[in-house]
Amino acid sequence: MATQDNYRVDVLTSRFDKALREFLREAVPALGGIADELAPLGQTTEAFVLDGGKRLRPQFCYWGYRATAAGDSEDIIRAAAALELLQACALVHDDVIDGSDTRRGQPAVHRRFAALHRSSGWYGDPERFGEAAAILLGDLALIWADSALTRSGFDAAALQRAAPVWDAMRVEVMCGQYLDVVEQARGGGSVERALRVARFKSAKYTIERPLHLGAALGAGEPELTRAFTSYGLPLGEAFQLRDDVLGVYGDPDVTGKPAGDDLREGKRTVLIAFAFDSANEAQAEQLRTRLGDPQLDADGVTVLRDIIAATGAVDRVEGLIATQADEAVRALEATDMDDAARTALVDLARSATTRSR
Amino acid sequence: MATQDNYRVDVLTSRFDKALREFLREAVPALGGIADELAPLGQTTEAFVLDGGKRLRPQFCYWGYRATAAGDSEDIIRAAAALELLQACALVHDDVIDGSDTRRGQPAVHRRFAALHRSSGWYGDPERFGEAAAILLGDLALIWADSALTRSGFDAAALQRAAPVWDAMRVEVMCGQYLDVVEQARGGGSVERALRVARFKSAKYTIERPLHLGAALGAGEPELTRAFTSYGLPLGEAFQLRDDVLGVYGDPDVTGKPAGDDLREGKRTVLIAFAFDSANEAQAEQLRTRLGDPQLDADGVTVLRDIIAATGAVDRVEGLIATQADEAVRALEATDMDDAARTALVDLARSATTRSR
Q: Closest partner residue to B156 among A31, A131, A160, by Cβ?
């Protein structure tokens, strides 16, 4: 079966989903053994984890493992799927931090718990309750990510090889989030700092570390680990830049994110840093006034989109995406690895940077 | 050296502190390798973890290990100290959830980051920034807890024995927090439900699971694990009840918590459930009106303290503390274990239930 087929990605995705369902089928009812009131915590985590997501991190972890010439197994499927639980923690906490209303076209987790509070007629502020529940649900997902990896079926030696990567990956994603929050608070303005956030929040966390984790589980050579860095960092940057573009120009029906949310939030992305960098005085004034205005309406969104494009920022970002994706692919070509893995990783590089969601 | 001596507890405490300092001496500067802006995240975690705390969970973990007849070692000191990093996550997230201003007599972590935001002259709401940073700092502490245990020096087999306990413990503390939040939202009222929160938030998390973790690392027999449950659950309940009493009647200079904070927050503890349970109509009316009033002044605090005592709730709680502590000690006496460990655990039962902070 050729790995170029979309089918192959689909097959893996459904295997990751199955592994997650099986893990949660044990973990969620165990909460019921503690108290009935915990049911919404378990069910919401389950719904969040199983409902969509591109399963990109598990794909990279899986192919990082296969690149070591290790064969396909349910162990690597389970270990790779654990990354989705870590991602659930990152997203749920991120939505609390950003005060986001929706995620993947559904109400954000803290909004769902605020609704539970309202419908239960409880005391206090529903929004505060929702945030409290979402903080704890994110913690639970972070803990479960660890359990899922530990119980994936790999032996103690493989898990010990994986531990430093697993630790680094988890620390880096939280640090990336913090740098992002600081960057928003500073009001952005530096292309260099925006790229650094992209590097830690996405390049390392989404691509490089999942590949390293797979390689460590498969006892890959140091040369392979280095190649994954040379592939993962530019590709991850390109991936995040695609995200930036979709956040402003994406189709809400496809992305699941309301149009203009990134603009209303005033998100300090590389795209926005480029726009400021190339704007004339009138454009810069418009950007300063409108970016981060929570009341920005559809017309305001259109005006901002046009200005950002007019500065040339979109072209610069698209150029950077293409260059970085090429650099990533070249790093693979120069490295000795399993052929099926190489083909799959070239395909992933293409789909991660040309996607529309 | 007799374990009855306070000295012994002090020695252990300073060994735990040393292990934490050594772990953080590597972990905190590693953040600087990512970005200078991460320094406050690392330094605040370090200050929080090293500044005080009773180190109760590490003590129980240590003696759970020694009870298996395993000898003293730096490995068990490092593994036990990891519990303080988990506790840091629980406390920092708890303070965000409760909107607490202080912890251990210092500004709460989210307040410290709000102050950083203000002094940096950044954009946006300092309080929101503070909460975001505290959520991420808590996540980081939760991840570091795991790293600290993994790198404690125990071999893969010991860590594999410990994994199910470590997983259960982490899940239980988050579930206990959630049940607590739900209980506050419901406005409390049930002695049974308040006791259940105490069981998960404190009895299992503070005492039973740390003992189990130590026993698992030391390859203890199932009989020992069962004895630790019979000791840990009643003692943990007594420990939490002491906390409830200190939260209302404690000396702020000793507890580090402002007088009356639990009353202003309207915390639904077992003490309060007893008070409602035994109150006459006039007393119940006063409790309903004043409990949870954020504006409650010193006079209001005194009135509430007097009413709670007048209902007989304090006597009932003190009676329960004594009964539960006795039950805990009897469970130890009936079990075959290392004598030094038994003596230390009897001492810990006494100090955990008669403490003034």
A: A160
For residue A102, the cross-strand partners are A107
**E strand or H helix that includes residue B320:** helix B313-333
Q: The complex's ipTM?
A: 0.91
A10 pLDDT more than 60 = yes
User: Rounded to an integer, what is the distance from CA A257 to the centroid of its chain?
Assistant: 14
* pLDDT score, position A7: 52
Global pTM value? 0.91
Please list every residue in chain B whose beta carbon sits closer than 8 Å to the beta carbon of residue A136: 93, 97, 174, 177-178, 181
For residue B172, which of B210, B147, B205 has the smallest C-alpha distance? Answer: B205
Tokens of B312: 């007989």
pLDDT of B1: 43
Average pLDDT over residues B319-342: 93
Q: Contact B317/B274 with Cβ under 8 angstroms?
A: yes
Q: Which of A129, A160, A175, A268 to mutate to test the interface with B (most CBs of B within 10 A)?
A: A175
Query: Can you tell me the distance from the alpha carbon of A16 to that of A28, in angstroms, rounded to the nearest whole number?
Result: 18
Pick B61 or B200 by higher pLDDT. B61
Q: What is the pLDDT of residue A255?
A: 79
B309: contact with A, CB 8 A cutoff = no
pLDDT of A81 reads 98
The pLDDT assigned to A56 comes to 92
- For tokens 């306070």, the residue is B6
Largest separation between any pair of C-alpha atoms in chain A: 63
